[in-house]
Amino acid sequence: MSIAKDFFSQTRKPEGFLGKMMLGTMNSGHAKLADWGFTHLPAMTPENAVDLGCGGGRNAGELLKMFPKAHVTAVDYSELSVKKAAAYNRIMIGAGRCTAMQGDVSALPFRDGTFDLATAFETVYFWPGPVKSFSEVCRILKPGGWFLIVNESDGMDKTGKQFETIIDGMHTYTAEELEAALQAAGFAQVKTAHHPQKPWLAILATKGE
Which of 78, 185, 203, 204 shows a CA-CA span of 20 to 30 A to 177? Predict the structure, then answer.
């Protein structure tokens, strides 16, 4: 159990050998969930997007494909994740369309109104707050900007609750908890979608004009 706990705890902030192993599974392991989440984005043409808690960088890469005129910034608390995301998106970084950097969601290193779109896949379980962190996301979005949260757990499923006991600092939020936190953080509109067969959540929040 100790080895399993140590491995799965790398989900929060990958470090060292076990962190490298965890990152090796993230891009493929979360792909179906992420692709389902992306379908809930409205029609848009963002100039600047940010993927928060970018992990292995796959979702930042998908944003670059979806929005060929956008610049995408991949941000993670883990230095190891940033290196992995940078390697995954090295061609787009070289082309000047992508940046990978370390950052803390409770104090993001961006000016107010920088981004049109922010995304967060399988990561808000670990964010401090969450109202404080969501307020930071709201701050860095432009008026009318969008924030997409995609979670594998809806806060009530058995597997999610089991992982809470394994991974220190993890909390699986219900849709109602996330909606309340987003509204408290200043988002004007919040829409939630549930997967029809799985406990997946896609929550789309809009910053007021």
Answer: 78
Residue 14: cis peptide before it, omega within 30 degrees of 0: no
pLDDT tens digits, residue range 124-169? 999 998 999 999 999 999 999 999 999 999 998 888 887 777 777 7
CATH architecture group of domain 2-207: 3-Layer(aba) Sandwich (3.40)
Q: Is 131 exposed, middle or buried (0-12, 13-18, 19+ CB in 10 A)?
A: middle
Structural domain boundaries in the chain: 2-207
Could you tell me if 64 and 72 are in contact, meaning their C-beta atoms sit under 8 angstroms apart? yes
Q: What is the DSSP letter of 27?
A: H
Closest C-alpha among 27, 39, 29 to residue 195: 39
- Residue 99's DSSP bridge partners are 73
Contacts of 168 (CB under 8 A, 6+ apart): 9, 12
Taking phi over 0 as left and psi of -120 to 50 as alpha, with beta for the rest, 113 belongs to left
Quote the CA–CA distance of 141 and 29 in Å, as a whole number: 29
